[in-house]
# Entry
Amino acid sequence: MSRVLALVATLALAWPLAAQTSEERAAALAFDPSRLPRAPEGRWLAWKPTDKLPDSVHDTLGLALAAYRESDYAAALVHLHAALAREPDFPAALYQLGVTHFRLRRYGDGAVTFERFLAAAPGEVGATQGLAHCYYSLGDYPHAQAHYERVLAAAPTSAEAWRGLGLALLRQGDASGGLERLDRALERKPDHADALAWRAQALFELGRAGEALVPLARSIELAPHEPRPWFLLAQLQSELGREEEAERARARFRELGAIEQEVRAQEGLLLHDPRAVDPLVRLLKLHRASRNAGELRDTLSRARRRAPPPRERQLECLEAADALGQRELAAQLAAEAEQRFSTSRSVWEALARHFAASGDAQRAERARARAAQL
# Structure
């Protein structure tokens, strides 16, 4: 984590969410960041991430980070725009605004914001790999390469910047150069799933399909929910004459691609109504199906903070906790479900599955008997 991100992240723990109107949220999502007010030239040249936050933005920035932590990106934008209206070009707020735009896949706005951050605080170039990520996501690979190299000149230990540089070179047809940079990323972070997948891609492009299977298998083990490695696996298996294995990989790629599209649709619904229940329940199911443990854990936390949960969400939370191996939380959720929905057959059926999975055969049998009665 960069020093800038570490600075703003500490604020998120101290602040509750604040409600915005739908009009405020829509306006924030539609706002062009190039229209933000500008500070006098050189206003923040001496700024460092260790500096005390100005009183004028302390509370607003804390609210922005609390909203971001809850994946309520529209609310985060509302507060960040307010902070930057009070303190134009304040670097920490600009940085978090760039991160939020990137999370929203608004890469053009992210680039504009990170460029403003870099102009305001040029000494923090080592923290601006997000700007190179934006260029890369926009398809501007030469520009991305140049900025990754600039970041690495200031922060040579950044695994993310080495990975990004490797990808930018691969996209420009330099498989050997890409492989070399990806290896540097993996020296610093051996279990970087995406770097492993792209290392396999570079080996494949260099005609070394057999070697590519090893990093690709590790990438899929670490991130089984990502579609692209499965597509590459299908290519590799086909190249090696293993058509049955190739077809299985293609089928999983298609399945994960469909899940990814639906995840984006549900996230879009939550962007406009972050307290909606149905999209959260659907996301729990989707992340379980894709085996995305990280997103499943985050979505479970978000769902748990909505109270009181309806029956379907309670059961989805229980099954998610079981899938994640969080036994203590699963036991708590099971007890809550048993107490709140004691006359529901579907609840007792779910409890029977939970108790059976946890090895409590006696309680599983009692739950099955209760479900049969109902």
